[in-house]
Design brief:
7% strand; binds iron/sulfur cluster; four-stranded parallel β-sheet; 348 residues; globular; Fumarate Reductase Iron-sulfur Protein, Chain B, domain 2; 3 domains
Length: 348
C-alpha cells in the first residue's frame, strides 16, 4: 500500500474482496441499477486496492468508484466474511479527497458547508423560536430540518410528549462532510456537538450511526418511543401501509423491531412488508451522497424499490429516514414517515 499508506489498515477488507468470487454482487443497488463490473462491491474494492498498490491510476475517473456506493451495507449481509465494504470505501473517499480527486459534487458539499450550517440554523430557529434552556437536545438531521418541516415538527411534538422539554440542536452532525471525504471536517463537527453537552436524542438514523461510530452515545427517538408504546393509540381506519427498512436504521444500527412495533400499535395491525425486508431490504438509493454524485442511478434504485412495493400491493410506503422519504416522494410515491404516524397517535 506504499502509494496510499492511509488505507494500509483496510488491507484485509480490500484483499478479502479482491480474491472473492463476488457472492454479494446481486445485493448492490448501484451495480443492479447500472450493470458495470467496476460498480459491483468487488469492482469498487478492487479498484481501490489496485490504486492503493499503484496498479491503477490515481486519477479522478478511478477514484470516483469510491463514491458509487450508497453505504447500504447490503453486500456485508451476503458476504460469508461480513466484509465491511462501505466503511472501507468511505476511507478511500477520505484519501482521494485529501489528494484533490473527489468528484465535483462531493467537493461542492464541502465548499458549501458553511452555507449549509447557516441555512440549518435558520431552519431550526423557524421550527422552534423559543427553545427551553435546560432541555434535552434533539438532533433532527439536516434532511428533516431543511427539507421536511412538517415531519420535523412532528418529531418535536413526539419528543416533548415522551421526554418533556427539548431544544433543537442547530448544528449539522457533519455526516455530509464524511460522505464527501472530508474526514477532518466531520471530526470537527462531531467535536463541536460533543462540546454542546449531553449526547442528543436523534431522529435521523444516518446521523445516529455516524455519531455512534465517532464515539458519541446518541439515543434514537424511535427507540425512546418504542419503549413507551402505551403513549400511542391506534388510529382507526388507517390506510394500507408498508414499512421500508432504511439501511442506516436496519443494517446500520440493527433496529428492526422498534419501528414495526410502533407502526403495528398505531395501525392496530402489523404493517405490510416488502419481500426484501429487514437484513435483506433493498436500498432506496438515497444514501452515500449518491443523489448528488450519480443522480440517475440513485433515482433508478428508488424506482426499483417502488416497483417492488407495487408488485406486492402498493399503498403507502412508511419509512423512518429523511433521505429515503425524499427519494420516494421524488419518484411520486405516496410516502410518509413513521414520526408523522406517531404524532397523530398521541392522545389529545
Ligand atoms: S463483500 Fe464479501 S462477498 Fe462481496 S466481494 Fe467482498 S468479500 Fe466477496
Ligand atoms: S454498501 Fe451497498 S451500495 Fe455500497 S457496495 Fe455494498 S451493496 Fe453496494
Amino acid at each position: 500500500m506504499r502509494p496510499l499508506p492511509l488505507l494500509e489498515h483496510r488491507r484485509a477488507e480490500l484483499e478479502t474482496c479482491v480474491y472473492c468470487p463476488k457472492l454479494c454482487r446481486a445485493a448492490c443497488p448501484v451495480s443492479n441499477a447500472e450493470p458495470r463490473e467496476s460498480l459491483t462491491p468487488w469492482g469498487k474494492m478492487s479498484t481501490v486496492f489496485l490504486q492503493a498498490r499503484g496498479g491503477a491510476p490515481q486519477d479522478a475517473e478511478h477514484s470516483a468508484t469510491a463514491w458509487a456506493c450508497t453505504g447500504c451495507h447490503g453486500c456485508r449481509e451476503r458476504c460469508d466474511h461480513r466484509n465491511e465494504v462501505a466503511p472501507t470505501l468511505l476511507e478511500a473517499r477520505g484519501a482521494w479527497f485529501q489528494r484533490g480527486l473527489a468528484p465535483a459534487a462531493a467537493r461542492s458539499v464541502v465548499a458549501r458547508h458553511g452555507e449549509h450550517q447557516r441555512a440549518l440554523a435558520a431552519a431550526i430557529q423557524a421550527l422552534d423560536p423559543s427553545p427551553a434552556p435546560a432541555a434535552t437536545p434533539l438532533l433532527l438531521g439536516c434532511g428533516y430540518a431543511l427539507h421536511l418541516a412538517p415531519e420535523a415538527r412532528d418529531a418535536l411534538v413526539v419528543a416533548r410528549a415522551l421526554v418533556g422539554p427539548v431544544r433543537l440542536v442547530d448544528r449539522c452532525c457533519g455526516l455530509p462532510l464524511l460522505l464527501a471525504g472530508d474526514i477532518e471536517g466531520f471530526q470537527r463537527e462531531v467535536g463541536a456537538l460533543r462540546a454542546l453537552g449531553p449526547a442528543p436524542l436523534v431522529l435521523d438514523p444516518g446521523c445516529a450511526l455516524a455519531l455512534r461510530k465517532a464515539g458519541l452515545t446518541p439515543r434514537l427517538l424511535i427507540e425512546e418511543a418504542a419503549e413507551n408504546l402505551e403513549n400511542f393509540h391506534t388510529i382507526g381506519g388507517a390506510p394500507e401501509a408498508r414499512y421500508h427498512d432504511p439501511c442506516q436504521l436496519g443494517r446500520g444500527l440493527g433496529v428492526y423491531e422498534a419501528p414495526r412495533a410502533l407502526l403495528g400499535r398505531v395501525l392496530g395491525r402489523p404493517a405490510g412488508e416488502f419481500e426484501g425486508r429487514r437484513q435483506g431490504a433493498a436500498c432506496s438509493g438515497a444514501g452515500g451522497l449518491l443523489p448528488l454524485t450519480m443522480p440517475e442511478v440513485s433515482g433508478e434504485i428508488a424506482r426499483a424499490r417502488l416497483r417492488e412495493h407495487d408488485e406486492v400491493g402498493g399503498g403507502e410506503v412508511v419509512t423512518a429516514c429523511a433521505s429515503s422519504l425524499r427519494a420516494f416522494r421524488k419518484q411520486g410515491a405516496q410516502a410518509s414517515d413513521l414520526i408523522t404516524w406517531l404524532a397523530r397517535a398521541l392522545p389529545g
